[in-house]
Input
Amino acid sequence: MSTVWLIIRREFRFRVRSRGFLLITIIGLLAIVGLSFAPSLINSAAAGKQLKLAVADRTGKGFYTRLKADLVDSLPGGGARYLLFQSSAPTAELQAKVGEGGYDGYVVVDLASGAPAASEAYRSTVATKSALSASDEARLQAALSSAAVYVRLQNRGIAGNAVAELFSPVVVQTEVLSGKSTGPGRASTDSYALTYVLVLLLYMTVAVYGSYVALGVIEEKSSRVVEILLSAARPFQLMIGKVLGVGLTALVQYVVWLAAGGAVLVLRSAGGAVNVGGLNVKLSAIDPWVLLAFVIFFLLGFFSYAALFAAGGSLVSRTEDAQQISTPVILPLVVIFVVSIWALSNPSAPLAVVLSMVPLASPIMMFVRIGVDSPPIWQVAVAIVVNLGTVGVLIWMAAKVFRAGVLLYGRRVSLSAAFKALR
Output
């Protein structure tokens, strides 16, 4: 065991101290922080500018009055965010005014094309001198839609002060009745969004960093130093040290990025919620069991595929051939990822249950089931044991092929030679 630990420490220290590792880690951190705050900075910059808009209501239904009452947003430093001016000028004249700088843009509300005069089918055009920010565009669209509803209700004799009461939404709380406790389980929306993101992280980690292990094995195999190492350690020990050392290096870099991204999300979260793909995930609703399961199956999945990549890397002697052995490993992973997305909505389907206990598929599939469902404990235990056994068998196979490859220095190990080495 001490020999394996020495190999792990050698691999880890050598790679973590390299300039390339430090440079890529720093660049990744800067990219994560920059991309996280860029949309907010852009919207903040746009929100600091006052918009002067001419409103041409050609329906005669009071759209301008309603927009004026709705668009009362304020600038960060005070003052009105939107200045509206009623206008009956034709479109060409409004365009000329915008070009001269009199307005920043104009809003024209009219009946939909071909609609009769008594119709309530409205259309609107918003034209601005420069492109609107996403927040401004959404705000104007919401205000125009609200004004259309207000006008339609007034046409039916409903007072404006009753609009809010009529359209007040019903608060719907969806829950999953979990078998782990007598009380209600996780909110389904939060569970779905969180599980989807974590599955995507697991898939990307295995696909990107698994190849690092293959490259590490190929580099070791192509170096004559390996002959000295094999005189002090058995091939199985060397392969375990290589897989764990290179794998831990990749995971450390990834964890640093993940922690930075998580910290940014938490800092930017409002009301204890984080926006994930358009869904607000409440931080207080995150089940600790899901996070623990993610860590367990993340490590099992990563090292299962890392061992498989190591076995593939043992077949070749040049880094140029790494792509040839990476592709056959990535393709099944892509298929499993696609099936896992389907399993998010069908966690109890027979296919999902079976795959959650099949080697290489179970790290992703079982985590999906844990995230959105409550699989029996015995199935979770089977998945963990299967994955541990898979890691051990694959490392043993990689060590056997690796040893044969060292004897055939400079040449690619054929499949027949690889099977012969496994005997």
User: Anything to note?
Assistant: Residues 305 and 315 are 16 Å apart (CA to CA). Residues 178-187 have pLDDT under 50 and may be disordered.
